[in-house]
């Protein structure tokens, strides 16, 4: 699937509406307006179809700038904070500006020096972007939503880059951690299934005992 920057929505096309956000983008290639042919290096490919991924839409503003729209929480459509996506097919030394344009929070730690996380194929350890490259502000061009913009320079063409709001901690990782605790057969640790979530995920009841008492979370 390929995308192109759009200056004005066509009749019957809801892509000009900020509410037009469906599922996560899946290997979404952004092509320059008017370009025909196969994608070249530097035509960025966005993906968020993985566990904890969140990126619903990408609009190319200019050669270097992209507006990114995040999907709301499953059970709270007014809450939009988390993002986690990958970018590939980059050119060495390619500079970009990414604008997360539909945050729902009026206050954010991004105003106090927090910065998004980034890692890549050859550098799998999460790192924070330099705070000087991150800006959080209210934007009149996007219904006065709060926007977080950050600048980035890709330096390795073969790498896939991943960006996230903060350190991701997935449900699968948590389940693996609980599995490892359960296998240790500790007398003071007991795990049982309490039920299932709306999305059919297991809800665990953990009981930890001690001589002084018993607590459950």
UniProtKB/TrEMBL annotation:
<comment type="similarity">
    <text>Belongs to the peptidase M14 family.</text>
</comment>
<protein>
    <recommendedName>
        <fullName>Peptidase M14 domain-containing protein</fullName>
    </recommendedName>
</protein>
<dbReference type="InterPro" id="IPR050821">
    <property type="entry name" value="Cytosolic_carboxypeptidase"/>
</dbReference>
<keyword id="KW-0121">Carboxypeptidase</keyword>
<dbReference type="InterPro" id="IPR000834">
    <property type="entry name" value="Peptidase_M14"/>
</dbReference>
<dbReference type="GO" id="GO:0004181">
    <property type="term" value="F:metallocarboxypeptidase activity"/>
</dbReference>
<dbReference type="GO" id="GO:0005829">
    <property type="term" value="C:cytosol"/>
</dbReference>
<dbReference type="Pfam" id="PF18027">
    <property type="entry name" value="Pepdidase_M14_N"/>
</dbReference>
<dbReference type="GO" id="GO:0006508">
    <property type="term" value="P:proteolysis"/>
</dbReference>
<dbReference type="GO" id="GO:0008270">
    <property type="term" value="F:zinc ion binding"/>
</dbReference>
<keyword id="KW-0378">Hydrolase</keyword>
<feature type="domain" description="Peptidase M14">
    <location>
        <begin position="167"/>
        <end position="217"/>
    </location>
</feature>
<dbReference type="InterPro" id="IPR040626">
    <property type="entry name" value="Pepdidase_M14_N"/>
</dbReference>
<keyword id="KW-0482">Metalloprotease</keyword>
<keyword id="KW-0645">Protease</keyword>
